[in-house]
Structure formats: C-alpha cells, structure tokens
Amino acid sequence: MDSNEVNKLLAGFLGTCFVVFSVGIVSDGLFASPAPEKPGFAIEAAEPAEGGGAAAPAAEAKPIADLLATANAETGAAIFKKCQACHSGEKGGPNKVGPDLWDIIDRPVAEHEGFAYSAGMKDFSKGGAEKWTYDNLNHFINAPKKFVKGTAMGFAGLPKDEDRANVIAYLRTLSDNPKPLPQPGASAEAKPAEGAAAAKPATGAAPAKPAEGAAPAKPAEGAAPAKPVAPAQ
Ligand code: HEC
Questions:
Q1: Of the candidates 200, 225, 226, which has an alpha carbon nearest to the alpha carbon of residue 212?
Q2: What is the pLDDT of residue 126?
Q3: Which pLDDT does position 27 carry in this prediction?
Q4: Residue 62 CB: number of other CB atoms within 10 A?
C-alpha cells in the first residue's frame, strides 16, 4: 500500500465521517424535538375559561345567590318530596332517617335535637361553629358525600342548579321567620370590578380592548390596553 492509497482511504474515511456528522446535525436541526418541561400530556381544561373574559363566569359554578333570585319555592316543594323519604319539614317534626329540616337555613350543622349524627357530619360542624348557609346547603345537596366526607345521608344529590335552587327556596319557607335571600351578583361583582380597573387606562381606546383586559387571570393582557392610549391622546 503506498502512501497515495493510504491518503485516499483516509480521505474516504474522513469524507464519510463528515457526511454522517453533517446529516446528523442537519436532521437534528430539521426535526428538533425539545424535551417537554413536564413529562406527559398537559391537559389544560381550565385554559379556555381563563382566556375568554366572557366565558369565565359561565364555566364556574353559578353562585347560589344568583340561582335563588330566579328560584321557585313551589317547584321546590315538589322536589322536597325526594327528601321527605328521610326528612320531615314541619315545626317540631320527627326525626326520621335524617333530622327534621324545619328552619334549616342558618341552623348550626348537626345540632338538631335528638338526632344521632355521623362522625363525618360532626366533624364538618366544627363543634357547632358551621351553619347551613345557602352556600353550604347548595354544595351539600349537590353532592352530599363529596361535600361532607363520611356523611350518613344516603342521597345521590341534585346535580341540576335549578333543582337545588328551587328546593333551597322551599326550605327557606320552612320557618316562622324566613331568612333574607342572599344578594344576587354580590360575588359576581367583585371580578368585573378588577377587570374594569385594568381597563380604565384605555379610556377612549377601542372598546373591544377592555373586554380582554377583563380576564382577571392575566395581568400581562391587562397591561396591554395601556399602549393604545398614547396614540389616542
Ligand atoms: C336516604 C335518606 C335521605 C334523603 C333522601 C335525604 N337525606 Fe338529608 N340527611 C339524611 C341523613 C341520614 C342525614 C344525617 C347525615 C349525617 O349525620 O351525616 C341528613 C342530613 C341532612 C342535612 C343536615 C341537617 C343538620 O341538622 O345538620 C340537610 C340540610 C339535609 N340532610 C338536607 C336534605 C335535602 C334537602 C334532601 C333532598 C334534596 C335530603 N336531605 C335527602 C338522609 C337523607
């Protein structure tokens, strides 16, 4: 083998290396697949709700105050028949499978005379500090076992907003002195207030912008409406 042949072989070898490496580099560049920061699929079900300002309230559970504003106690009386399998609702009525529900609104949890509550319900009552507020009732009746872990109430729950609102409106009437209804929109107002604050700097700017600014979750967007102000002045 003379040096010429050695040179050819070396050149061929180096050339091959060069080609292999360049192909590798180029294909890496072409098909770059950066490793995900978090392994697995990110399931971001909540995202759309945050993105669209208008969509946000719809995605959340409706506050009971709003639902009660349009609730019908008479319809609720019919739904209460389901509860009557286990509950009476008269003043001084008997405890059945469950305690009597007379005057239940704002009644302390697990405090009805002569009823042996489950350990789960007693825990939830925090020694009588917790009351059956409209909110608590709404969540409890929605899914009893989810809201009060270990409750003995063997009832699947009323998943429909209207059903719960109607039956709660009826429960409210089971009293000598029905408690005032909660203020509708009280909790809903807090959010638009924030959005409005972010939107203010944009006065005079396109009215579409403040709608975006109203998405309270994103301060970055809220800041954006500031820009159009300068050209506007
Ligand atoms: C299958 C029987 C059953 C049905 C149906 C039922 N409940 Fe109950 N409920 C119970 C039992 C039992 C308890 C006591 C739970 C415990 O101690 O954990 C209870 C407790 C309650 C309490 C708490 C009372 C207190 O003094 O703290 C409320 C409020 C209540 N039920 C409302 C309802 C409403 C409203 C319905 C109908 C939509 C309903 N229940 C349907 C069995 C039932």
A1: 225
A2: 97
A3: 74
A4: 14
CATH label of the domain that carries residue 126? 1.10.760.10
Q: Quick check: is 138 in a domain?
A: yes
Q: Ligand 1: distance of its center to the CA of 144 in Å?
A: 8
Residue 13 structure tokens: 């070898």
- pLDDT tens per residue across span 35-94: 656 666 665 554 444 444 444 444 467 899 999 999 999 999 999 999 999 999 999 999
Say how many domains are in the chain.
1
Both tokens of residue 185?
A: 């929109």
Q: Is the pTM of this model over 0.90?
A: no
Q: Is residue 196's pLDDT more than 50?
A: no
**Is residue 107 in a domain?**
yes
The CA–CA distances, whole Å, from 93 to 114, 165, 169, 174 equal: 11, 23, 19, 11
| Residue 24, both tokens | 């590798």
Atom number of ligand 1 nearest to Cα 85: 5
- Nearest CA, atom 26, ligand 1: 110
Contact call for residues 51 and 63 (beta carbons, < 8 A): no
Ligand 1 centroid from CA 83, angstroms: 7
Portion of the chain with pLDDT greater than 90, in percent:
51
